[in-house]
Fold these 2 entries.
Entry 1:
Amino acid sequence: MVKNIAVIRGDGIGPEIVEQALHVLDRVAALYGHTFNYTDVDMGGCAIDKYGDPLPESELKKCIESDSVLLGAVGGNKWNDVPGHMRPEKGLLRLRAGMGVYSNNRPAKIWKQLADASPLKKEIVDKGIDFIIVRELIGGIYFGEHKTEGDVATDVLTYSEAEIERIGRIGFETAQKRNKKLCSVEKSNVLDSSRLWKKVMHRLADEYPDVELSDMLVDNCAMQIVKNPAQFDVIVTENMFGDILSDEASMITGSIGMIPSSSLGATTCGLYEPIHGSAPDIAGQDKANPIGTILSAAMMLRFSFDMRDEADAIENAVSAYLDAGYRTADIMSEGESLVGCRRCGELIVENLRKG
Ligand code: NAD
């Protein structure tokens, strides 16, 4: 198969981690007889420096015309003082909206080799952590009106039934492919938008009788994720709640450097990126963990290109690398072998086998 991938290296550790993911994709292409063509796209701080714009239309167009987009991370202290509409993260919001990716899917899964890295008690971790948060990505308060008048600031939170329904369906369909348990998270004791959310989820539930739907208030969910994460299979929630809960969920699995994500809309052209940021504190030092980006590339193969064996091969190679005791600094503990970003990528490539 021939696939055209738009590649956004971005800022900070972005270029280092993306480089390793591309080596892994090249090895997959060689093993399975595919061709992956890469088109470089400037986004974030590097695009501000080059064009005075975090995502010029021409760069967005390259992404929309690709078969999928692989992103490292954007942002950094250098651009902290630029005006709000020009910030590197604006490029990301524009990219998500421009690609029409309304569903962000983040697995919270503990690798058995890294069970000790979780900040949770062993007896909680031993019950297993393996769930997915499906977050609405292009609606809600982040995309509502924002204004400051004198000493009053306002941010508007709006959801339509149609917006809730399309993300709700992704939640139900994701649960159907897993353990058929969907937890809808909202704040219906306070917010009108959450009451609409709950109503739409229960209407949809009639169409997915094989999925067990439950409701949970977001404050309770934040507690349950640390108290008893094994209860969750799939969580579906709105944009801001999902942003916060998915960061919490990623922390309980150990390192944020390990976690991939996918963002999808109505087509198979998706956006794949690790959940962490550009980590300016370790940029350019060959210290970053590239596994979140490598696993994002695996998600791209699985969800956008329907290359399941190839995705399994990457995940197995990561597992073999961890089994052999190699660790980047972020997940290092006693008795293991410290490697840098480049060596980590090389070892994963060496462990890649055609399944
Ligand atoms: P961060 O995720 O970049 O870093 C938080 C901590 O985790 C740092 O100590 C960092 O060294 C560490 N870390 C992150 N990724 C790592 C990896 N792969 N390997 C090893 N350690 C890793 O979050 P931050 O420091 O709050 O933000 C830094 C910049 O990134 C900011 O400009 C922020 O706006 C931006 N950001 C971008 C994205 C994105 O591009 N999607 C997401 C979040 C933050």
Entry 2:
Amino acid sequence: MDLQQNVSLKSYNTLAIDVTAAHFLEIKCLNDLRAARDFCQQNNCPWLLLGGGSNLVLTANFDGLVMLMCMHQVTWPEDAEGLFTISAEAGYEWDALVSESVRRGASGLENLSLIPGQVGAAPIQNIGAYGVEVKQFLDRVQVFDFDSGDEFELSASACELGYRDSIFKRHSSWIVTQVELILGRGKPPQLNYGVVADTVTKLSGQPANNASPQLVRDAIIYIRRSKLPDPIHIPNVGSFFKNPVINAIQKQKLIKQWPGLVAYPMADNGFKLAAGWLIDQLGWKGFKQGGVGVHDQQALVLICSDTANGWEVLALAQRIQADVEKYFGVKLEVEPRLFDNRGEFKL
Ligand code: FAD
Ligand code: NAP
């Protein structure tokens, strides 16, 4: 086991927070995970698994073992009907998978283009964007339970995938080691989300309804680049809060006060509020103080300088939460996962 000591995690998290890991290990195969588990048990040591580090906030030097997922084999078998059954190890880069699927002519993942991070993290919060979620294509996952050492398979339905949610948030010792996705060819593009169809037409000069996965991917990349900060230049973890869901009575009450309220009907009769809109109404967009701030194009994205620490980011998040609760009566839930010196905590 190639264990390193006192390793800076700055380049392993997209907020660029400079904390260290007491012990650090690259996980290149299942045997590395098994050995890491033995090490943690023998040394009574806390552990943390990092993928691309694009959905977490580190607030302190970590006193235990930080594992970087580096397993990245992928296979692309296609059957006679043009169905791809893609098996990708957890450490494969998500957007590389999307790009390759589009190159091979498979449809479905293009709306999920340019989401940072790894394949193994995709089911953890059931990544979603522009009207599509990974749930629509997931077939099964392989899991290693870091507490018990058990290795098992979960079907997609057993993963309990919901809106930015899954069973993995309730079983934090379960590590996804491999993901299986099923994609077809020639499926109609998913264009019902706001600007997507118009952007396809603008970029290609063609009507959007028959657009190829590649044209949709180009449009999504164009939209994202024009609106979302690239963590390489401006550290961030994407949306800092989940969109809150309210019931019809709450919605009626809020609309009287805020006639422009942005609320999308959900399948279960609830309404999803655009958290970014709520934050924007309270004047936070473009706010800056010290090393932290709110992005000037999207109020849901908190940004920081590369010398800020995790607590500064969380202090800003708490001020925004308090303000939104005061004016809208809605509690914003933090989306990224939060870690201190020994493990996960909640705000
Ligand atoms: P990490 O940040 O490394 O980990 C996140 C959590 O998952 C941690 O608790 C970690 O321990 C756990 N984890 C990671 N890998 C595994 C594994 N293999 N098994 C078990 N647990 C694991 N998200 C969206 O849903 N939609 C978007 O459109 C979107 N856009 C984004 C845009 C930007 C600019 C940024 C910075 C982030 C965005 N995100 C988006 C959030 C983030 O990219 C996703 O949640 C992504 O799936 C996180 O992957 P990761 O590998 O970076 O996970
Ligand atoms: P946006 O297009 O400005 O829309 C604002 C919000 O309204 C989004 O959060 C979205 O909910 C909701 N929305 C818009 N059109 C909708 C529709 N037709 N039906 C249902 N809901 C609709 O959002 P954005 O910030 O530019 O992000 C674009 C997409 O990328 C969104 O899907 C967003 O979730 C995703 N994204 C996610 C992250 C992350 O870290 N989680 C970061 C960046 C972008 P949904 O969020 O449920 O789609």
